[in-house]
């Protein structure tokens, strides 16, 4: 019996268990189960200040698509040893269909109060694997939300100031503006054939060869992801050096830059950028920075978080902000707790 067969049996069993979920209209429309052949099992828990929340609709997105949705609920029963268990706030039967190991899962939650929140949580999509379990779920904290900005350059361009030229609304040397909290800087390098950056009614932002588009997060925030609104971009992303395509990018950066390395103009119709407020040192995700975070940080350094790696915030653990997690971060964390400069 292979892994996929066993996984499907586990999911079927979970679906058959009684829960406290009540019927309600869904706010999201997932793609069909048959669109992707590979998948992963996911168990998460919706919490509010550490308290599990039942009745919240959780939607899982991969590359801009809603892959699955479920209402958080109670899961109770008896384990194989005859011991009773009961867990609230769980989403236990997620199957996230995917097609590569480069994709990431992001989450939106529709609360019983009618409020929608976009969570800061980002979970790597690992095909044919399992993330979380009822006793140790992936935490979906509704108080840790990500700011999601979607740039449609044709719409945003209406607020820009352009120089005039034969190519329409063309830029001068540099155009900088602030949009929904992010600073956007567009540079223009004119080529021998006079190709320049400009906004086209049909093609969005036209990026000339060697031209760049840079996004900078507000003070105290970091960018945690970026995805193109169309899947055929040929721009180069500075964070990875890779072509900015369907999978987009997930990481941590104050600034990201897209460059056109080609010899012709490339159209950027739009881009989705996610950013969040960073509390460096809050490794255990409880909203505080204290001695408990030192223990969590040491666990990361010693590799003790490998079984359930997503219970810790690795971004917050990088206290020195050098993209490494080591003893330097322990020193920095202790200084934060002791309020040393």
Question: Low-confidence parts, pLDDT < 50 over ≥5 residues?
Answer: 1-24, 161-169
Structure class: mainly beta
Following the backbone from N to C, one meets helices and strands in this order, namely HEEEEEEEEEEEHEEEEEEEEEEEEEHHH
**How many strands, which pairing sense, and closed or not: the largest β-sheet?**
6 strands, mixed
Oligomer: single chain
Mean pLDDT: 77
Principal-axis shape = globular
What's the N-to-C terminus distance? 58 Å
Task: Tell me briefly what this model is.
The chain is mostly beta strands and 341 residues long.
Description:
Strands 1, 2, 5, 6, 9 and 10 form a six-stranded mixed β-sheet that branches. The chain is mostly beta strands and 341 residues long. The N and C termini lie far apart (58 Å). It is globular. It has five helices and 24 strands.
Helix and strand arrangement:
Elements: H1 3-16, E1 41-48, E2 51-52, E3 57-62, E4 65-71, E5 73-78, E6 84-95, E7 104-110, E8 116-124, E9 130-131, E10 138-141, E11 147-152, H2 153-156, E12 163-165, E13 168-170, E14 174-179, E15 182-187, E16 198-200, E17 204-207, E18 212-216, E19 221-228, E20 236-237, E21 249-253, E22 255-259, E23 266-268, E24 270-277, H3 291-301, H4 314-317, H5 327-337
Parallel strand pairs: 1-9, 1-10
Antiparallel strand pairs: 1-2, 1-6, 3-4, 3-7, 5-6, 7-8, 11-24, 12-13, 13-16, 14-15, 15-18, 16-17, 17-23, 18-22, 19-21, 19-24, 20-22
Helix pairs in contact: 3-5
């Amino acid at each position: 019996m292979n892994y996929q067969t066993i996984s499907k049996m586990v999911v079927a069993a979970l679906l058959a268990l009684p829960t406290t979920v009540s019927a309600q209209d869904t706010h999201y429309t997932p793609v069909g189960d048959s669109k992707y052949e590979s998948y992963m099992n996911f168990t998460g828990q919706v919490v509010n200040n550490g308290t599990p929340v039942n009745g919240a609709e959780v939607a899982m997105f991969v590359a801009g698509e809603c892959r699955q949705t479920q209402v958080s609920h109670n899961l109770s029963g008896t384990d194989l040893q005859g011991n009773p268990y009961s867990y609230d706030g769980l989403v236990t039967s997620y199957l996230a269909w995917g097609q590569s190991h480069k994709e990431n899962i992001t989450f939106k939650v529709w609360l019983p109060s009618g409020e929608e929140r976009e969570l800061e949580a980002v979970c790597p999509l690992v095909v044919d694997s399992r993330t979380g379990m009822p006793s140790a779920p992936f935490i979906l904290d509704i108080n840790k939300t990500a700011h999601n900005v979607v740039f449609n350059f044709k719409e945003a361009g209406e607020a820009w100031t352009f120089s005039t030229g034969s190519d329409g609304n063309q830029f001068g040397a540099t155009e900088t503006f602030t949009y929904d909290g992010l600073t956007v800087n567009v540079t223009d390098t004119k080529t021998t054939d006079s190709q320049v950056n400009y906004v086209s009614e049909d093609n969005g932002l036209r990026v000339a060869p060697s031209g760049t588009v840079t996004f900078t997060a507000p003070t105290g925030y970091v960018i945690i992801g970026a995805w193109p609104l169309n899947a055929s971009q040929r721009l180069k992303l500075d964070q990875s050096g890779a072509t900015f395509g369907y999978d987009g990018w997930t990481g941590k950066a104050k600034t990201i830059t897209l460059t056109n390395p080609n010899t012709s103009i490339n159209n950027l119709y739009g881009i989705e950028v996610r950013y969040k407020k960073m509390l460096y040192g809050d490794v255990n995700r409880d909203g505080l920075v204290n001695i408990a975070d030192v223990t969590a940080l040491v666990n990361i350094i010693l590799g003790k978080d490998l079984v359930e790696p997503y219970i810790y915030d690795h971004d917050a653990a990088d206290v020195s902000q050098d993209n490494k997690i080591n003893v330097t971060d322990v020193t920095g964390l202790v200084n934060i707790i002791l309020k040393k400069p």
